[in-house]
Amino acid sequence: MKPFAYVNPANEKDAVAALTREHEKALPLGGGQDLLARMKDYVTQPDRIVNIKNALDATAKQENGGLRIGAAMKMVDVAEHAEIGKMYPAVAAAAIEVGTPQIRNQGTVGGNINQRPRCWYFRNEEFKCYKKGGNRCFSPEGENQFHAIFGDGPSYIVHPSSLAVPFVAYDATFRLLGPKGERMVKAAEYFTMPTKENVQRENVLEPDELLTHVILPAPGNLKTGHYEVRYKASHDWPIAFATVLLSMNGSTVQAARVVMGAVAPVPWRSQAAEKALVGKSITAETAAAAAEAALTGAQPMSQNAYKVPVAKTAVERAILQAAGLPIA
Ligand SMILES: Cc1cc2nc3c(=O)[nH]c(=O)nc-3n(C[C@H](O)[C@H](O)[C@H](O)COP(=O)(O)OP(=O)(O)OC[C@H]3O[C@@H](n4cnc5c(N)ncnc54)[C@H](O)[C@@H]3O)c2cc1C
Hints:
Blueprint: E1 5-7, H1 12-19, E2 26-29, H2 35-40, E3 48-51, E4 60-63, E5 66-70, H3 75-80, H4 82-87, H5 89-97, H6 101-106, H7 109-114, H8 164-169, E6 173-178, E7 181-186, H9 187-190, E8 210-216, E9 222-229, E10 240-249, E11 252-261, E12 268-269, H10 271-277, H11 284-295, H12 307-322
Parallel strand pairs: 1-3, 2-3
Antiparallel strand pairs: 4-5, 5-8, 6-7, 6-8, 9-10, 10-11, 11-12
Helix pairs in contact: 10-11, 11-12
The structure holds flavin-adenine dinucleotide.
């Protein structure tokens, strides 16, 4: 591993200052599970790493009827937090399914949201893909079992964060802090689809900024479903998953939010599925029709067509779960 400097600031202002030191490539360090793995694989080689665990907030506090979650909060604490579980059950459900107890004990909210893609070409130093300054994505002609089924490139990664999907569904806002002060960005606008110009990035965070908080609005009276499909029940990223939020007027859906994970370079909201639910009662048939709508337009590659029915099942089951109906 290339030698690097280590900085351990005690507050968010000093952490941002440590990131902006000239002539050095500096990166924030949360639990380090993604960053250190990339450093050991020679994929990322910072000159300095800035520990944010003593600098950023690691708590969840009530704010304006919602919750403000610090980026240094560990995933285990998110999964076990009583108010998060009560107010935003899909966030707790996503956190509890991440990896293993060790990963959840170590990983932070900020690190989970900002972890880099798990694409095996990106993670292998031998492949100079778009994400590493190269001029191609290797997946369309290569091994693409776990790659995107939505979006038309130029990179076909899927976003790796499980928390990102419910954060988009609940319309969370991310607080970012940089040398010029703070800015607030909606979760749905934080994650970016790849273009030729920004293909090396997955979000709008600038290199001298930190994500310090996730701000969740008052949840209202929502019914929630969150369903993940994995190859095996133990540790691994999901093949496809979905968060569904329903706002009901009696037995009729008044508003719906359907967001899928592991199918696109960003958390993938399906307005077609939402439209298919609004004004309807939830039955096995309406759930299946909305799931069908959610996958309309999917463009699988040579080895990942199986993800289409898997994602459809995840959406369908999340809808049934939200409505309190049995999952077949
Ligand atoms: C076997 C296995 C299974 C896994 N399964 C899942 C899964 O199902 N779902 C899932 O979501 N993840 C999964 N993970 C990934 C794991 O959850 C992440 O690696 C972890 O959440 C990263 O958190 P961290 O705090 O360790 O991040 P770090 O490695 O510290 O940071 C990750 C990246 O984010 C940047 N960063 C960290 N904090 C901030 C901040 N506050 N502001 C801006 N940038 C920041 C770092 O510079 C780095 O680039 C799995 C990992 C393994 C090994």
